[in-house]
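Board notes (copied after class):
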Amino acid sequence: MSDITAYAAPRSLDEAVSLLQAGDVTILAGGTDLTPQTKSGKLTFRPTLMNIRRVPELSGLTESGGVMRIGALTTISSLLASPLIHERFNGLWQACDHFASDQIRNAATIGGNICNASPAGDTLTPLLTLDARVVLASKPNGSIVRRTTPLGEFLTGPGRTARQPAELLEAIEIPMPPEGFFSAFFKFGTRPALDISVISIAIGAVRDGRKLTRVRIAFGAVAPTAIRAAATEAALEGRPIDAAAIDAAVAAAVNETKPVSDVRASSWYRRELVGNMLRRMLDHVANS
């Protein structure tokens, strides 16, 4: 572990991105990923440790112009307590309900879960089905500059993102879902809340009678990043949710997931879980 020579606790976004522009900064928010990773030697602290918990622009949930904005510092507990998240983004709410323990949910932030970029990150799959995008702030030339990128493009590999060293994740933006939209989340682990996912699945779609449109399906822990499942979505798009459509979607899901074997599960077992659990979720949709 490298020595920390400076500690900063900025009180504004402008101050925070100015510090990042100076370089050699480790960002601290909830610390639920950073702390164990530095203790294990996976990460090392840079000379400046910047605690961003006092930056007000990074907190809170707001809805404006048909977009839900979630500040990067919003805790998992805050999302779980939000009636709007529960009612309009139920898949994300379910993921928060299965996220670690109460103590960790109180500290862990949605921005941290995204920037940690674990293939098994609980919030990532529902956010992918919600067409979420991330807002990154920086200060390259004396004023704050923002860029927005889809979450699927932001996640580039295990523990890797498209965030540049001088950028700070400011917020997550989610378009408000259309009428008839539903979403759901499933996570499998030895202890579903406390363990890292063996697999996770998120579904989002607009239901018109028995037909599904605007289908979004994402899988976690089956690839280097959480992924959208394009072939699985295509098997369901515009079709009645019947046995044939479900069979086609399950076959597509098994074919397009290529998980690794590790200490939690074999590749074969993960693919079996993907097929079986997706079928269970779609059967529930068909019969509800």
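Comment from the instructor: The chain has three domains: 6-51, 56-175, 181-286. The domain at 6-51 is CATH 3.30.43 (Uridine Diphospho-n-acetylenolpyruvylglucosamine Reductase; domain 2).
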